[in-house]
Structure formats: structure tokens, C-alpha cells
Amino acid sequence: MVPAASVPDDDRLTIAAIAVMAACLATFAHEAAGHGLACLAAGGRIVRLTSVYFSCSRPSVWVAPAGPAGNLVAGAAAWALLTVLPGGRPRARLLLLLVMAFSLFWAAGYLLYSMTLGVGDYAIAAHDAFGQVGWQATLVGWALGLLLYWAGIRAALRAAQWFARPTAFSARSLLGLSWLAASLAACLAAAFYAPGRLEAIKQAALELGASSLPLLLFAPQLRTGLQQERPLARTGLWTGLAVLLFIGFVLTLGRGLGGSGQPN
Fold this sequence. Notes:
By secondary structure, the protein is mainly α.
């Protein structure tokens, strides 16, 4: 056991900066890489692309499910990289951990939300595939959503153990600050969508903030043991990258690209 006094705390600003980067990447995976590429592959034109809304000029059964699929691909890719990432890379490890968590939890939470209310990507995909969506499809959606949450929590909890150190600023605080910074960044970016700021902020809060609440709920399960990863020291490079990425994110997906569109 490493004495708590000998282990420096992680830098709060660096944690927040990495969380903001992860939120931008998870959102890009859903909206731009997921919906956007599916629209272009179907021969359509992107009519509206924002951090919470998407619209394609050509109807296609592939556009709606491509958003959640983008999250699943991003989450799986981050998980795969985490399994081979050597020690001594705390900032890269935290970035991959958060991209994985935000992406998988977004896909899982959105599935529960969409199938319960009958709106959004999953409901559209189910309607396109099966026609009328009954209670059976809703139950299957709930089962799959809970299963995806379970898998995401297990993967994130395993990765977070690398940061479970006996310091005043524990891994639980690290995850809480990461969730808060990412949620605020998502809502702030959505606030730049002029046609409907309040609704866009609400969607951002649900998609990234509410869906990622397990980051707070499973944190008490972290066990403090031997120090496995170096503390997150402050670095101007990562903070600067986060600032530049967020500014670019706000000016593009935050404000929105294209014409008018609907939530997707």
C-alpha cells in the first residue's frame, strides 16, 4: 500500500479538460460519424448536423440506427485501446475511459428512453424494421439497454481501478468531476443552437449527462489499492487541445451545420 501522503493528487483542470474532449468525441461519433456517414452512404445530403440534432435529405433505414452504432463503435474502440495501453499514460487512459463510458452509456440510456417514449433513433429503426412497435419490442429494448449498461459499467469500473489511489482526491472524485465537466460542456455547446436553445440543452443533458449517471453510482465500488497509474499532472498541451477542440466543436456541431432539421 502506498501511503496517502506520498501520492500527489490528480490535477482538477486536467481532468476537466480531458472530460470535455471525451464529450466532444462521443458526440462526434454519434452525430457526425454515425448519422452523417450513413446519410452520405445512402446518397443523401446532410441537411442539419448539430450536437443533438440530425437530418438527412434522403430517407434511409440505416440513418437512424447509425447514430447509436457510432457510439458502440467508439466505445468498443476505446475499450480495445485500453486493453493494450501500457502504464504511465494517465491522461490517455482517462480519455479512453471516458470516451468508452460516455459512448456506451449514451447508447444504453438512449435505448431505454427511445423505446419507452417511442421517439428517437431506436424507435425509428424499430418502426422501419417491424412496422408497429408493440410492448414486446419495448421489453426487448429495455432488456438490451440494461444489458448494455451492465457491460459498460463493468468495462468502465475495470478501467477506473487504475486511478483508485489513496489520495485526498480519490478516483470517485475524479469520475464525479469528469461527469460534471462533460455534462456542462455538452449543454454549453448545445446552447449555441439558436433555433431552439432550451430544447437543445435539454437533449444534451439527457444524452450525455443523464445517461452517464452510472459514473457516479458505481464509483463507491472502487477499491483503493496499490498505485497503478501515475497522477494526472497539469500540462498545457492537453488543456490547450481541449480548449481548441471545444471551440471547434461549438462553432460546428454546437451552432449547427446545414439547414433545418429534427432531433435524431
